[in-house]
């Protein structure tokens, strides 16, 4: 035995124990504080860390984690905490903790010293967090800015009036020019008419027709003599009448044309006048356009039902989503750090390192695994919380379990909360699922929204919130449902900056509200962000807001319209006078033509009637004569026809008799032939019978 | 020899080191043997692997033994299930007595015949006179 050897071993063991007892706790504490500080970005302090090498346990009395955004506050602090490290896996460099307890956890506590540490350059948000953040910013920017107080009686008509350029006066001037051109066109059209001269010419023609010359139309000869009508003198006279009628008809048609032309002019003029009659509407339209220009300057908010929910709750929801997005980014950042502990896939050892033969299927363990962290303590508002965080692990695939947590909290006033979450990175796409449910939440003094038409203070009411948020890879969807019941608002005293009118509206809104339902869903899928919000207040508030806005608009409209009309009236008056004057002139001119054409038309019609009457009379007489002649001719034709018929019947009888005679002769010849053939047949038959008889007798003789 | 042949990643080595510290072993000889057999082991790893593989896989009657051992706590840390580790360990066990006898005989003959001649060599005398040797002697003779 070597004494020195034994002494060496004993001394070595003594040194290890002494170092562990004297220095290890402090060293570990410092290391943990340093690592924690690096992770959080502010001071992390442990009190009385106790590490036991033999028991492989680590305990501390207090842990303070400074809020990096407010270094005089702790994000949270804990009371006594501790855990044991499993020894056996430690030989395989695996850090496994079965159960860790974190007790007396408290949120947002005050610090005695500043917890700031020299800051590292701020960690850049991940690309995903940046993208989601941008989408949320866009969505926030799209929320209509609507404050009823800014609207009520505060539309600055004068500044709006100064900033616009009215188009109506110019439009009226242009219209006036176009009307002048139109009336000039009418004057040209009327002076270009030749109706007057044409009528004078036609009148001469009409007067040249002498009816008396063709009055003696008698003695038309019989039909048998009128083979050549041109030779008949009387008919020539008829022709003359017809020609006169045609001439009158032509003149009449021409007169009608004049009437048509004048009528067309009247119609066109009326049409133009109707068009001009719409001037008022046109001007009103321009005024409306000018006012719309003003409306745009008013930047009136869209008070659709959809927007009301956004106005009421959009800011808060987006702020919370942004916060969750930041928290998730941190979680993912820490998770990525934890993943660094995940062992890389074991490569097969080279040939000369040998080969491990597995005899027992050992449970594969991750390098780091806290199976359960039991948490208990107080959240804000004296809510007693307890819960557990399970499977904090580097490599979930190895244990095939996700990291989960749940926290249940109860407050002395019976309101409760349950927060649960799952971090599942086992599949190809990581999933983070969270849910937060709050029950019996007293709404007293809670500010639901900054919207001016809802009172700041709720006097009474209970609320319940159910929310979820699911992240899958780079996508997420989140939803929240809020139900407030038994709501009673506290109007308090009328705020000084709120007009009496708005205060009344506020009261009328809130008196109708006993329940508030609110829901929101937000999704970010395939780089598309969508947010939808709804509440039972949407319709009510939208209606009231519209009422306020409409009233304000009406007021502004009336004021601006008065200003516009003041400017426009003189132009309008000039235009109206011009129209009136030109219209009267042209109407007079047209009336003159109408009268002229009508007089002429009456003359022609009288002449036409006269000629037509004469023609009718003569036609009647001639027609009678012709009918008489036609009767005679008809009787002659009928006599001829009768004679021809009798002759034809006699011929037909004769032919019939001849045919019957011939038929009889042929019949007799046929019967004689038939008889001859029958006789021949009978003779043959007898001959055959005799022959058969003879043969039969011969056969009988031979037999006997 | 065992230190040189068997991998340091195996728990087999720990009791050997403990024995070296506790027992009156010649440390200079230990170091010399460790270096020598480490080089030999490097050359014979293939053979150790074959032997270990034969023992661990081919000999079916031993399977139950290995399984039992694998179930006992701490034993797996010897890495006996590695072909090279087991091969080298078994080889070192097998060679333990023959090498002991062989080395003992060799040393006796060396002391009788070769040591006086070697110690007279200039190089050896120079080495013994050096500071390095003095320190080395002190360490080696620590337990003497």
Q: Radius of gyration of chain A in whole Å, from Cα?
A: 60 Å
Tally of distinct domains of chain B: 1
Mean pLDDT of chain A: 79
Chains forming the largest contact? A-B, 20 and 31 residues
Task: Count all strands of chain B and give the number.
Answer: 0
Taken as a percent bin, the fraction of beta residues of chain A is: 15-25%
Helix content of chain B: over 70%
Strand content of chain B: under 5%
Outline of chain B: elongated
| C-alpha end-to-end distance of chain B | 21 Å
Class computed from helices, strands and strand pairing of chain B:
mainly alpha
Number of distinct helices of chain B: 7
- Measured between the Cα atoms of the first and last residue of chain A, the distance is 165 Å
Order of helices and strands of chain B: HHHHHHH
Number of strands of chain A: 16
Which regions of chain A are unreliable across 5 or more consecutive residues at pLDDT < 50? 213-232
User: What order do the helices and strands of chain A follow?
Assistant: HEEEEEEHEHHHHHHHHEEHEEEEEHEEH
Helix content range of chain A? 55-70%
